[in-house]
Amino acid sequence: MKERILVTGGTGFIGSHTVVELQNSGYEVVIVDNLSNSSADVVDGIEKITGIRPDFEQLDCLDFEGLEKVFAKYGNIKSIIHFAASKAVGESVQKPLMYYRNNLVSLINLLELMPKYNVKGIVFSSSCTVYGQPDVLPVTEDAPIKKAESPYGNTKQINEEIIYDTVKSGSPIQAILLRYFNPIGAHPTAIIGEMPNGVPQNLIPFLTQTAIGIREKLSVFGDDYNTPDGSCIRDYINVVDLAKAHVVAIDRILQDKQNEQVEVFNIGTGRGLSVLELIQAFEESTGVKLNYQIVGRRAGDIEQVWANPDKANNVLGWKAETSIEDTLRSAWRWQQKLREDGIQ
Ligand code: UD1
What we know:
UDP-galactose 4-epimerase, domain 1; single chain; 2 domains; Rossmann fold
């Protein structure tokens, strides 16, 4: 029998790409998602790509009884990948309690249920946001955790601590924390991708919406940072590459390969790109000219951060493979597909 993985937030951007890669690797998946920031059509998309329809339960991870029923119904859940979370930095400043409740209680519910249902491990979606502005670049996993700039960032830090404390207390679970850098792009089939709600806050969806004419101009937030061209630097990681890191993490948990009960890995390319370099790469790889202007800095932005992914490369045996050009072309194809489908 194939091993079953519970993917919370499995119809979201990173979740959906991960379900595809899990199914391609032979895992059986049940998705739990409340569809607060995604659509049930994504399940059709996953089936179209893989030929397999994942099980889907529309449910909020805050609903402890509902979650318990899922564990009871699918008796063979071996591991969890926990994506379900609120993730808009700005909104988290406006609605801190909503962010703390959604992001902390969901994880607590899962951790409480895991031992009872013999779920061996959990892969948690963490973020490079836990490093704040690192003192040393590229940043390694043992860089100090800096005070979070937003409630959203704080939920990532606290959730990491909740997992460490739970394991320390003797809970028989395994955990892998994946600290993502900036996930971008879409599946090469353009059947699934990122679906921003309202005006996108993140760079790539705003950029592709500008390129297709939904937005008039992309604002580049600041060109007076202490970087070679003055704009901020990030490590943009292809979403399919990122999804594959989750499959490797699940293999590692289920095959008893972990060196410690909780392990943490940076998931990035190891290459920093500035906002202006990214715009140039987009124009060169798609042939589309982008209308943009330099504006003031955005409050709370980190100046520059990129990963040292050596640990993931050497210990997990995972490496980012897709070029930035292919990644940006995939984001552009996805935007064009949304237009063809009359969605955006
Ligand atoms: C932020 C969070 C990250 C979170 C992610 C998801 C921090 C430090 N980082 O990433 O943890 O996972 O959001 O929402 O809290 N930019 C523009 N114009 C735009 C949009 C963005 O110039 O219209 C620039 C930003 O200034 C930044 C870069 O593009 O330099 C990337 O921004 P964005 O895509 O929003 O991601 P982060 O802020 O890096």
